[in-house]
Design a protein that fits this description.
Keywords: Disulfide bond, Glycoprotein, Immunoglobulin domain, Membrane, Repeat, Signal, Transmembrane, Transmembrane helix. InterPro entries: Ig-like_dom, Ig-like_dom_sf, Ig-like_fold, Ig-like_Receptors_ImmuneReg, Ig_sub, Ig_sub2. It is a single chain. This protein is about 10% helix and about 40% strand. The chain contains nine helices and 88 strands. Strands 65, 67, 68, 70, 72, 74, 76, 77, 79, 80 and 81 form an eleven-stranded mixed beta sheet that branches. A hairpin with a 7-residue loop joins β51 (about 710-715) and β52 (about 725).
Length: about 1250
């Protein structure tokens, strides 16, 4: 990578720190003041000589913790585990000595591990204050006139902080904060504010004892020039090793350009001299670590810079990641509807193309602009021709060597609407006063869910699994026209045609007259009762004056009169109903919730909107009031049963107390909690509450704010610092006192503040007095049925205690809603029943009760969470690892909802109270069943609900059956006619048990629910699978259980793998020990297949007939006369299907002397043999020549010595003559001879 790295690059980076901070919000970068970072400071009881006794304190920013860790010089560690969770701990150091000096940091334990360490505290020799830490924090958007906060951390309490600027002898600002951090604000940054700043501290009582200066910080006003543009050539996505050119272009000539990679600011600051008004940054050979987010800027000779360019993301990858295609609303769509295909992938800045299987050209294209605007591929008015398999691919406009992997596909299925159901009413379509009607929606086959619609109310919709809907006619509100529809499990998003409308009529004519007549009879009976009492008194008075013989007549008349009175009393009793001890709960219209929202979290008063929400779905509109009487506005209720009241920027005219009401058809709710706006720079005052404190028990203090994303602090009278602090946890927070004792009594208040420094605080809440009083034990509180109910159900709360003659009070969400004094008249144990005749959506919540007499109150009972379902869509429930488990194993039930921030409950069939509750920030919860036993078997379901609005819950999930196996002997599972069949044929899986009167269950690996259940008369169940398809392939098993103990199941049978295919899968072929023949050694070919009970055959290329047959798949090959060399393959056939052979395996080559290795050896031997032949031939030629000369030399040796002497003499004479050539002995030895005439 050819990039210039000047020595002043780090300096330039430091100078542009302000610019980076001012834009951190727009880039999505994390501020330097990381909120998860703990705070470390020093405390001492010797303010004039703090080094005499030092204690280090570590404080977590937003949560309580169970462990804290102190680090020194990266090697020494000291950790503290407090006796209870807290948000700060102390580490005593004692007197500062040479051994204590060093660099200190601290961490705290989070749920995911240790937090990031705090800022480094450097302790030097005694007599010196620690050097403060100096950094900046921007508050506003990236404009040249942004406000800058300079923070100086001095480590000690009650220090004097001085801000110095280079060139000035006196400090430009000073502060004496209550904590360890001073905030120096520079408003409206201008060029005059530029310069080098430092911070120093000193003790108030010793102004001569100064700390060392902090590290200098140079502030430069950035953004004085327009921002440049940053482009990549050939493109932003390249492969490793390819070259890339990043071009930064600005409008001004002669500037110096700089390039920054945000993932590594310190090591990726590059500077370039311009070419006219642009600079090019070249990457010759890209590497993986060069990927990231890049931006550039330019600056002049005085280091006055431009705004930063837009962020350009560079990808360096050798393989494109997969794209994901999602069909909305579902891959199964109804004919004529529209469907959107969303293509998602991790790579940005690349276009996308939509393909359909079987077509070469893309159907639709999306450029990068459309992708950034969240557009998708859209199919309008789909028909059967649109059905098929779709996939999406990346589109690159430049050449690159990046490989494109396979893509995920989605299969689009086009179906028509199911036929319409029938709708009827029982007992009739006439609504009678006080009577309910059941609407029955019916179809002749099994469906997933029914839906009921009410034409007169567009927002009305009920769901049912069995198709029965109960309609009550309270105040005549149930009349109207109804229709129903349904959906099947195969296509869960396709609703059927609506049924024929059914009209329910209200009481009219005869019914009204009958009702009036009943009331008239009741009134006449009361009048007759009074008249008859007067007649009895007159007769008794008359008896005293008449003669004795006539008294029997008056006695008879008196008896007849008394009989008539008793009859009238019985009639009145029958008309008025049977007297019960139940107290009916008259629910008031639920109180709405009021809160504020803003899009300026650091300055909320710049734009405020008040929201009002009601838990009642029948709310029509909302009214906002100010100061109790001032009518602000009226807003209709939205689908979420809420309304917004925009206030805008907060001014003096907005100051006051606000609350809202919700209006229904015939009622107005209670006012909401008052929201008090006290002015700018001050947040609204929160509300604090708590249940009565009980000695030795945990107490939660509830603090409710009015804005989301606020921090909370709890204060106690007499303590200056907050006793507890919590980070941004929503609009409300719960402070916990682990064990309430006498020392915890007192007045408490809470405050809220903005999430980031510098904090903007609210006014304190009204004080809450906590006093521990003597109390009776808490009562026993429960519901007679499950606390998870559907709308319209009847709920009875039972509150009881062994104490006699007490009164009971029922609470909902902490507010009193009903009371009962009937137990005063009854001796013995006291009890009260509180009745809700017909539960509504707004009746859900947390209920509790208390009792009292003249002297004491009781403790509050344990709460009962009443959840009213059928408000939200139903969740899905899955079992991991599966619904069939062994005893002692763990099972995780995962409940997946449709919304985040809900509370989940797990229910088991046959149990009134939910087994587990769980609140999660996400949209799912996991319930753990630990070491399951037979008692844990059964049907489970789950529900989720919101806790802020009357526990409005979802529909119950589809139940899932959990079997705990291993309690009975395992069965056997066989496939008939065999484990492999062709598509379209029939198959039967036979599960054989060992006990009669059993129910058999067929399971398939990867499927949550059982495939089928049977209860045969014998010991075996036959699960028939007609016309099997490819998706029926898989691994099957079965279990069984006795009807007398349905939750005690047997062990799994042995797994059985089923193949649905025309041809068995091909086997694998390997050679042992290798594919090379060695001298005198054989090779074993091993053929292996996936199915048992097969016969293998080995085939050799070039031979028509198969070479060998084997049942175990092993074939021995020898290389006699080189016949074992060549290509081999193998296949197999099932013994049950001898005519069906599998596909042949991949070819395997065996090599011998003619192989590549042997060929190399042969060539070497040929070369060596050739050299030997050449040498032998040469020696033969020499020997032949010598042999030819041998007879002639032997003849010469037989002559006389005189001849030899003559020859020698002549040779000497010739040697002495000039110009004659001589023959030396050497020449003779070389084979050269001279013929001389010799006289005979």
């Amino acid at each position: 990578m050819t990039l210039d790295r000047p020595g002043k690059g780090a300096t330039m980076l430091w100078k542009f720190t302000l610019l980076l901070f001012c834009i951190r919000l727009s880039l999505g970068m994390t501020s330097v003041a990381i909120q998860s970072q703990p705070e470390l400071w020093i405390e001492t009881n010797y303010p004039q000589a703090p080094w005499e006794n030092i204690t280090l304190w570590c404080k977590s920013p937003s949560r309580i913790s169970s462990k804290f860790l102190l680090l020194k010089d990266k090697t020494q560690m000291t950790w503290i585990r407090p006796s209870y969770k807290t948000f700060q701990v102390s580490f005593p150091i004692g007197a500062l000595t040479e051994s204590n000096t060093g660099l200190y940091r601290c961490c705290y334990w989070k749920e995911t591990g240790w937090s990031e360490p705090s800022k480094v505290l450097e302790l030097k020799a005694p007599g010196q204050l620690p050097k403060p830490i100096f950094w900046i924090q921007a508050e506003t958007s990236p404009l040249p006139g942004c406000n800058v906060n300079i923070l100086c951390h001095g480590w000690l309490q009650d220090l004097v902080f001085m801000l110095f600027k280079e060139g000035y002898a006196e400090p430009v600002d000073y502060q004496v904060p209550t904590g360890t951090v001073a905030i120096f604000s520079i408003a409206n940054m201008t060029p005059e504010s530029e310069g080098v700043y430092i911070c120093r501290t000193h003790i108030q009582m010793l102004p001569t004892l100064w700390s060392e200066p902090s590290n200098p910080l140079k502030l430069i006003v950035a953004g004085l020039y327009p921002k440049p543009t940053l482009t990549a050539y050939p493109g932003p996505i390249m492969a490793p090793g390819e070259s890339l050119n990043l071009r930064c272009q600005g409008p001004i000539y002669g500037m110096t350009f700089a390039l920054i990679r945000l993932e590594d600011l310190e090591k990726s600051f590059y500077r370039k001299r311009p070419i006219k008004n642009e600079a090019h940054f070249f990457f010759r050979a890209l590497k993986i670590h060069d990927a990231g987010h890049y931006l550039c800027f330019y600056y002049d000779g005085s280091n006055r810079g431009s705004l930063l360019s837009d962020v350009l993301k560079i990808w360096v990858t050798d393989t494109f990641p997969k794209t994901w295609l999602l069909a909305q609303p579902s891959p199964v769509v109804q004919m004529g509807q529209n469907v959107s295909l969303w293509c998602q992938g991790p790579v940005d800045g690349v276009g996308l193309a939509l393909y359909k299987k079987g077509e070469d050209k893309p159907l639709q294209l999306l450029d990068t602009t459309s992708i950034d605007d969240n557009e998708s591929f859209f199919l309008n008015n789909v028909t059967y021709s649109d059905a098929g398999i779709y996939s999406c691919h990346y589109l690159l406009s430049w050449k690159t060597s990046i490989r494109v992997t396979s893509h995920n596909t989605v299969e689009l299925v086009v179906v028509d609407k199911p036929s319409k159901p029938s709708l009827s009413a029982w007992p009739s379509t006439m609504c009678k006063p006080g009577k309910a009607i059941t609407l029955q929606c019916r179809v002749p086959y099994t469906v997933l869910e029914f839906s009921l619609e009410w034409e007169e109310r567009a927002t009305f919709q009920k769901f049912s699994v069995d198709g029965d809907f109960t309609i009550s006619n309270v105040e005549g509100k149930g009349t109207g026209t109804y229709s129903c529809s349904y959906r099947r499990e195969a296509h869960a998003n396709i609703w059927s045609h609506r049924s024929e409308p059914l009209k329910l009529m209200g009481p009219a004519g005869f019914l009204i007259w009958n009702y009036v007549l009943n009331e008239a009879i009741r009134l006449s009976l009361i009048i007759q009762l009074v008249a008859l009492l007067l007649v009895v008194l007159w007769i008794r008075w008359k008896c005293r004056r008449l003669r004795i013989r006539e008294a029997w007549l008056l006695g008879t008349a008196q008896g007849v009169t008394m009989l008539f009175i008793v009859t009238a009393l019985l009639c009145c009793g029958l008309c008025n109903g049977v007297l019960t001890e139940e107290t009916e709960i008259i629910m008031p219209t639920p109180k709405p919730e009021l809160w504020a929202e803003t899009n300026f979290p650091l300055a909320p008063w710049k734009n405020l909107t008040l929201w009002c929400r009601s838990p009642s779905s029948s709310t029509k509109e909302f009214v906002l009031l100010k100061d109790g009487t001032g009518w602000i506005a009226t807003r209709p209720a939205s689908e979420q049963v809420r309304a917004a009241f925009p206030l805008g920027a907060l001014t003096q005219s907005h100051i006051g107390s606000y609350h809202c009401h919700s209006w229904e058809e015939m009622a107005v709710s209670e006012p909401s909690e008052a929201l008090e706006l006290v002015g700018t720079d001050i947040l609204p005052k929160p509300v604090i509450s708590a249940s009565p404190p009980i000695r030795g028990q945990e107490l939660q203090i509830w603090c409710k704010g009015w804005l989301a994303g606020m921090g909370f602090a709890l204060y106690k009278d007499g303590v200056q610092e907050p006793v507890q602090q919590l980070g941004a946890v929503g609009r409300e927070a719960f402070f916990t006192i682990q064990r309430m004792e006498d020392k915890d009594e007192g007045n408490y208040s809470c405050r809220t503040h903005t999430e980031k420094h510098p904090f903007k605080w609210s006014e304190p809440s009204e004080p809450l007095e906590l006093v521990i009083k003597e109390m009776y034990p808490k009562p026993f509180f429960k519901t007679w049925a499950s606390p998870v109910v559907t709308p319209g159900a009847r709920v009875t709360f039972n509150c009881s205690t062994p104490h006699q003659r007490v009164s009971f009070i029922l609470y909902k969400d902490g507010s009193e809603i009903a009371s009962s004094d009937k137990s005063w008249a009854n001796p013995g144990a006291s009890a009260a029943h509180f009745l809700i005749i017909s539960v509504g959506i707004g009746d859900g919540g947390n209920y509790s009760c208390r009792y009292y007499d003249f002297a004491f109150w009781s403790e509050p009972s344990d709460p009962v969470e009443l959840v009213v379902t059928e408000f939200y869509p139903k969740p899905t429930l899955l079992a991991q690892p599966g619904p069939v488990v062994l005893p002692g194993k763990n099972v995780t039930l995962r409940c997946q909802g449709a919304f985040q921030g809900m509370r989940f409950a797990l229910l088991q069939e046959g149990t009134l109270v939910p087994l587990q509750f769980q609140s999660t920030p996400g949209n799912s919860a996991e319930f753990l069943l630990h070491t399951v036993g037979a008692e844990d078997s059964g049907n489970y379901s789950c529900v989720y609900y919101e806790t802020t609005m009357s526990n409005r819950g979802s529909h119950l999930s589809k139940s899932i059956m959990i079997w705990v196996t291993g309690l009975l002997p395992k069965p056997s599972l066989l496939a008939q006619p065999g484990p492999m069949v062709a598509p379209g044929e029939n198959m039967t899986l036979q599960c054989q048990g060992e006990l009669p009167d059993s129910t058999f269950v067929l399971l398939k690996e990867g499927t949550q629910e059982p495939l089928e259940q049977q209860r045969p008369s014998g010991y075996r169940a036959d699960f028939r699978m007609p016309a099997v398809r490819g998706e029926d392939s898989g691994i099957y098993s079965c279990i069984y259980y006795l009807d007398s103990a349905p939750f005690a199941a047997s062990n799994h049978s042995d797994s059985l793998k089923i193949w649905v295919t025309d041809k068995p899968p091909k086997p694998s072929l390997s050679a042992w020990p290798s594919t090379m023949f060695k001298l005198g050694k054989d090779i074993t070919l091993q053929c292996r297949g996936p199915l048992p009970g097969v016969e293998f055959v080995l085939e050799h290329d070039g031979e028509e007939a198969p070479q060998q047959f084997s049942e175990d798949g092993d074939f021995v090959i020898n290389n006699v006369e080189g016949k074992g060399i060549g290509n081999y393959s193998c296949s197999y056939r099932l013994q049950a299907y001898p005519d069906i052979w599998s596909e042949p395996s991949d070819l395997l080559e065996l090599v011998g002397a003619a192989g590549p290795a042997a060929q190399e050896c042969t060539v070497g031997n040929i070369v060596r043999s050739s050299l030997i032949v050449v040498v032998v031939v040469a020696l033969g030629v020499v020997l032949a020549i010598e042999w030819k000369k041998w007879p002639r030399l032997r003849t010469r040796d037989s002559e006389t010595d005189g001849r030899d002497q003559t020859i020698a003499l002549e040779e000497c004479n010739q040697e002495g003559e000039p110009g004659t050539s001589t023959n030396s002995p050497s020449s003779i030895s070389q084979g050269t001879s001279v013929e001389l005439p010799v006289p005979i």
